[in-house]
Amino acid sequence: MSFDDAYEALTDHDDDTRWAYGTGFSDPLAGVPTAVPDGVDPADLVAYCLMLGDDALVMSHRLQQWVTRAPELEDEMALANIGLDLLGQARLLLTRAGEVEGTGRDEDALAYLREPAAFRHVRLAERLDDDFAHLIARLLVFSTWRLALLDRLTTSRDPILAAIGAKGVKEATYHREYAAGWVVRLGDGTDVSHTRMRAAVDGVEPLAGELFEPHQVELRLAAAGVGVDPATLRTEYDDVLAEVHRVATLPPPPPLQEGTGGRDGVHGPELVEILTEMQELARANPGGVW
Amino acid sequence: MSDDIKHEWPLFEVFVRAKRGLNHVHVGSLRAADHEMALHHARDLYTRRNEGVSIWVVRSDDVVSSGPDDKDAFFAPSGDKVYRHPTYYSIPDSVPHI
Amino acid sequence: MDGAQVFEETIAKDQRVEPRDWMPEGYRKTMIRQIAQHAHSEIIGMQPEGAWITRAPSLRRKAILLAKVQDEAGHGLYLYSAAETLGADRGDLTRRLIEGRQKYSSIFNYPTLTFADVGVIGWLVDGAAICNQVPLCRSSYGPYARAMIRICKEESFHQRQGYELLATMMRGTAAQREMVQDATNRWWWPSLMMFGPPDKDSPNSAQSMAWKIKRHSNDDLRQRFVDMSVPQAEALGVTLPDPALRWNAERDHYDFGEIDWDEFKRVIAGSGPMNAERLAHRRRADEDGAWVREAAAAHAAKRAGAPA
């Protein structure tokens, strides 16, 4: 039995189609042109990629913290899937930010060596989940908003962002469906779950307003046909949330509160806790290769 | 205490069509509260490596199966119908593509 | 022919026993116990590596590790589903696990102290698991054999990612090379214990071999693993912590030192470094999730029009 082929004992089972076993993975950015579109300030594009990339990176980190703690093994699989999807989006976006920036920072330099104030995610992404209902409430808000955003990004003049949007739409569609399914089950389930789901919605809603407050970078890139003005996502978001709440027998979502800060690097102590965990090992081994 | 811990989601059987042109094949089972959740879980569990273009889920207790004891009654009658099998027909080697 | 004869003939002809076939009660019990222990091992085995996902030192390693730990949850599910075809109930099996009435692989009662442990688990622990599992793809019980085929195919990436991580770290800093050697020192002997007690002390082996639930003896598989691992360690540039390890041309195998079976028994009996914590963690997740599972069941019942 050699290291290269630990499975030679399986020779009578080599028909993969019998097992519905997958192949055919592809690089979503293969062959996509990488030049910065005309009329766009590269610094804006870098900042924008960091915003969307950090949203995904930080949200993925919170999902990673659920691993081995999910309420059922099937949900273990689902949460890991969502975490992996978002991590994949983060890697593409941070890599793009580093390449456009042109100072040699790659995805890891951006993820592991930036200080908290250099992170550009919305604060909803970093919030610690008190329980499964809080995670689900946050995931419904986050994925409904992100799906609408990625959907508009598919027509971006920047081919890389368009490709990331096309890939992400499929993923976020699934994330939203998963979250909506659980909001309905918890809202409509038992008295206990209904109470917990309402508390979670109340806890998360104050952070939702920030998602629709456009940053100057977003406005400039939206005008250039490259980025998305998040204010334009409100109608879709409101419709989806109202419908999910209705089916879940929850009160309608409260009006959004104003909020800003994350996009300018203003974060709470929760981000410091996240980055300590995420960056500690990488920073403790300068010159290390993994 | 642990006696209160409930695993009362029913069992579902999962069938995946690996690619167009093939049958759905049974790949295993999972637990879910309802069909919608079962489809979601099936996607996560049995198609996370791009396996499959279509999934069926069926409640396990809705599956009606022949028992091993029925085997002769169900399957023996076709055992003598060799004409259903292509190798029954001898074709000269010189005839191509058949 | 009656059921017993059919069963004997199926085994003798090397065919698979399927769920609704008649089978001896002992076969059913042995099968449920073995599959459940295997499933529990996958689920508990998520913890030692899962603890490093949030701390993984590169985004590529993070993605690999998250996908790997997710696979382990999937493997646990395939196996619980195989056990359920024998009439077992996953909830009941989980209760037996968290009450300590059913075992899981004792390897997961050792702590993961550095990131090199992630690599060594892939290389040695998954390597040992593959040696154990490949023959199980021919297990006489059909659903188990089919679950094992799927699992073995997916495990191929697990061992490779571990070895690749170690090879990369060995090209890094002196501190990284030390981490790899240290992790190898700590995991080598527990990995050898994964094949179970020596054949002369293995109480259930003879019946399992006769029923073709098991295909090779513990000692045979252990020897195969040692023979595989020595050249891999050389290629990596680490020393396996066994002064007695040397090639025996007469036997055409590597000789190796005596395993500390007292330690093995202590860890099996629950006194390993992490036994209590692993079970407590699994128990907490199950208890914390109870209200969620109940809510989903209640919602489904309402939808179906039945009383909640």
Report on the structure:
The complex is a heterotrimer of chains A (290), B (98) and C (308). Chain A is mainly alpha-helical and 290 residues long. Chain A has a single domain (41-278), classed as Up-down Bundle (Ferritin), CATH 1.20.1260.10. Chain A has helices at 42-64, 73-101, 107-112, 132-153, 159-188, 191-204, 216-223, 234-247, 269-284. In chain A, helix 1 packs antiparallel against helix 2 (73-101). The two termini of chain A are 28 Å apart. In chain A, 51% of the residues are buried. Mean pLDDT of chain A is 91; it is low at 1-24. Chain B has a domain at 2-64: Ubiquitin-like (UB roll) (Roll). Chain B has a three-stranded antiparallel β-sheet, covered by helices on one side. With 98 residues, chain B is an alpha+beta fold. Chain C has 308 residues and is mainly α. Chain C has helices at 3-12, 25-44, 46-50, 59-84, 90-98, 116-133, 142-170, 174-193, 205-210, 218-236, 261-271, 275-288, 290-303; strands spanning 246-248, 253-255. Chain C has a two-stranded antiparallel ribbon with strand order 1-2. In chain C, strand 1 (246-248) and strand 2 form a beta hairpin. The N and C termini of chain C lie far apart (47 Å). Chains in contact: A-B, A-C, B-C. The interface between A and B is medium-sized, with 19 and 26 residues.
Count of helical stretches of chain A: 9
Please name the fourth-level CATH homologous superfamily of chain A: Ferritin, core subunit, four-helix bundle
Radius of gyration of chain C from CA coordinates: 21 Å
Task: Work out the radius of gyration of chain A.
Answer: 20 Å
Unreliable stretches of chain A: 1-24
Euclidean distance between termini CA atoms of chain C: 47 Å
Oligomer: heterotrimer
Largest sheet of chain A: none
Total beta-strand segments of chain A: 0
State the share of residues found in helices of chain C, binned by percent.
55-70%
CATH topology label of chain A: Ferritin
Pfam families (chain C): PaaA_PaaC
GO molecular function (chain C): phenylacetyl-CoA 1,2-epoxidase activity
Organism (chain C): Paractinoplanes ferrugineus
Protein name (chain C): Phenylacetate-CoA oxygenase subunit PaaA
